[in-house]
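Q: Could you write out the predicted structure for this multi-component system? I'm mainly interested in how the pieces pack against one another.
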Amino acid sequence: MLCIGIHLRDMAEDWQEAALPCITASEIARAQRFRQPLDATRHLVGRALVRALLARELGTAMLQAEFTANPWGKPALPNCGIEFSISHSGMAVWVALCRGTPVGIDIELENSETDPHALSDILHPAERAELLALPLQEAHAAFFRCWTRKEAIVKVLGEGLSKPLSGFRVHTGSRSGDWLIEAPSIPGAGWSTADLAAAPGQYASVAAIAPGLTVDCFHLG
Ligand SMILES: CC(C)(COP(=O)(O)OP(=O)(O)OC[C@H]1O[C@@H](n2cnc3c(N)ncnc32)[C@H](O)[C@@H]1OP(=O)(O)O)[C@@H](O)C(=O)NCCC(=O)NCCS
């Protein structure tokens, strides 16, 4: 799995300009509908980064190839043999690419107003019990770890929240990888899961349906 994180910092306009050769007219039209300029920039930068990486991996100049979307909105470039996933939060944009198998990435900014105990009832019962057993500050970090890990799995599956988050279980403790305890039921599937080194106050996780994959992780910006 190849994972790349960009921190836009105070360079959002520069990143957006750099993205332009690798985005399509439909993506520009979509970006123009976002109310917040930062949301538009993150959308364009994520898509452009994926397209540039796909072109490099495939050895072709496909800088304007249109992505498809499944019924839940998961983007893809069909028949190219490489799957990808995009996530943004705050000034961070992350992408993951994986050959031949679905991949999901999620980045979240820690939000001090999130109440981990109150939100824990949407999680797996064992995850919920672990969070409720922790003092609030520790539960807060555990919740964000758990959340990004579960979202990475949700993004692999590509069906949004159509399946309950309580249907699979992740570790809530700090560990760099192998955090999937009870996988969603996909016959014969093995999984690779990892947390990614993100900036302080950020949590990032990646998952793919194939066992034993290594993660190459790079930061830009
Ligand atoms: C699709 C979904 C997973 C996006 O998650 P998000 O955290 O809101 O946003 P992110 O920035 O991480 O991801 C957005 C990107 O995901 C991709 N995406 C959209 N729909 C997707 C889907 N069904 N599956 C996988 N990826 C999807 C897109 O590339 C999108 O970015 P783009 O439109 O700029 O290309 C979201 O719709 C969802 O269902 N979230 C689950 C919410 C939740 O309550 N999770 C709790 C976990 S404990």
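A: Regarding packing and overall arrangement: Residues 37-58 form the longest helix (22 residues).
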